[in-house]
Amino acid sequence: MYAKVDSLNDQLSLWKSRRILVAVYISLGLTLLYAMRLSLSLAIVDMTKNLADEKNATQFECYFYNKTSTKHKGPYDWSEGTQSWVLSAFYYGYAGFMVPGGMLADRIGGKLALFIAVFGSAILTLLTPLFASINVYALITLRIVEGALESPFFTAMAILINKWCLKSENTIFVAIATSGQYLGFIIMQPITGYLCSLSFLGGWPLGFYIYGTLAVTWSLIWLYFVNESPKDSRFLAGHEKIMLRNYSIKSKNKAKESLSLKKVCSCTPLYGLCIAEIGTGLNACIIMNCLPMFLSNVFGVDIQSNGLLNAIPFAVSLLGYMLSSVLVDSLRDKILSLKTARSAIFFSSAFCAAVAGFFITSAGCRPTLVIFVISINLFFQSCCGSQISPNLMELFPNYTGVMYGILNTVAQMDFSMQYHSQFRSWVTCYLLF
Questions:
Q1: Is the pTM of this model over 0.90?
Q2: N or C of the chain: less Cβ packing under 10 Å?
Q3: What is the mean pLDDT of the segment spanning 406-412?
């Protein structure tokens, strides 16, 4: 009897299954996607001649750390305002096409939509140095199109997870699949910082070529080996196919009904998720895009050290993301209900993140302390964020694509913000969010 129970538990275990490979490969694709998306935020430090106006920069007390390092010998003489447009251009396309991208993923399936997102972004990443050499307007246009192409990724991922994930392991499965958004930043920043310091091909274009080439390779492997549905997989064991058919998130839901604007607007849980996503997503986006310029302009950090320092907060953030996900799946239906477990982790983490955010504004000209407090802030922010996506998939299993599109559109509010690297701008951002 006990042998049969153990055998059943082994079959159900995510860690001993083949379906976990789908989550891992999605995570790898997301790692490359974020590396391509965010490599410009560090490369732009080396692409430009001057990141900050000398006259304005000297008014900040942090400027005395290293005056000479704020001057760069990059090929482009872009003002800080121009650079902010270059960095934010991606989010115009990303946010603007998020809902259409979700509808596309619902129509053509998660596998193909995810392929389009990664492969299309890879081609444009390879072309980024060329478009930058034409003029800044060509680069801005390319970044807008790249954002539009990436917009279906998360919705496509959610559609696939609904089919490939057991309901009992939803939180940890989603955490594994989406961990790539942290891994991409952690891996990309030190590598990009090192590549920018090289003289070969100018240094900074190397990151675009490497990440783009790896993403093309990933796309082709994805297209050949991964299936839209577990029932069509050549590599999935028979008992796993049966389990996923009977116990996946998608399996026990009613037939799909038409989704009207009235239903969306009257959906109270969606408003709650949007508010939560604004707080967690916007905070992380500001740090991802602004921290490299901030460390360079305010503290005079060199390009290699910049990449390493940028990676630290997101390594800590990944730890919080995974730990909170494992904790929820450990507590659910044993000590606490799923709703209570998620609520407790979310609200306690949100409070701690808010407190840490206020401390960031008072860290002053101590770069080590700034990185430490940002790391604590992102640790708790990621604990909050790990509860949002699984909740959305469980609430709207039949409309995951469209609902994810709406949620991510709201979360990308920062696309309309002007990115600034001055200390007072950071203080304003953190007091606000």
A1: no
A2: N
A3: 70
Q: Rounded to an integer, what distance in angstroms lies between the CA atom of residue 154 and that of residue 183?
A: 16
Token duo for residue 245 = 């058919």
DSSP designation for 78: -
Q: Which of 279, 286, 306 is nearest to 419 (CA)?
A: 286
Between CA 338 and CA 331 the distance in angstroms is: 8
Q: Which phi and psi angles does 319 have, rounded to 5°?
A: -60, -45
DSSP single-letter state for residue 15: G
Only one residue has tokens 């730990």, namely 323
**367-385 and 268-299 are packed helices; what angle lies between their axes, rounded to 10 degrees?**
160
Asked if 17 and 176 touch (Cβ cutoff 8 Å), the reply is: no
DSSP 133-165: HH-HHHHHHHHHHHHHHHTTHHHHHHHHHHHHS
Q: Which two tokens stand for residue 9?
A: 């538990």
For the segment 177-189, the average pLDDT, to the nearest whole number, is: 83
| Angle subtended at Cα 204 by Cα 52 and Cα 85, rounded to the nearest 5 degrees | 45
231 DSSP assignment: G
Phi-psi category of residue 432: left, alpha or beta, with phi > 0 → left and psi -120 to 50 → alpha:
alpha
Rg (CA), the chain: 22
Residue 258 backbone class (left: φ over 0; alpha: ψ -120 to 50; beta: rest) = beta
**Residue with token string 């008014």:** 59
Q: What whole-number distance in Å separates Cα of residue 135 and Cα of residue 163?
A: 44
How far apart, in Å, do the first and last CA atoms of the chain sit? 55
Please give the Cα distance from 233 to 168 (Å, whole number).
Answer: 22
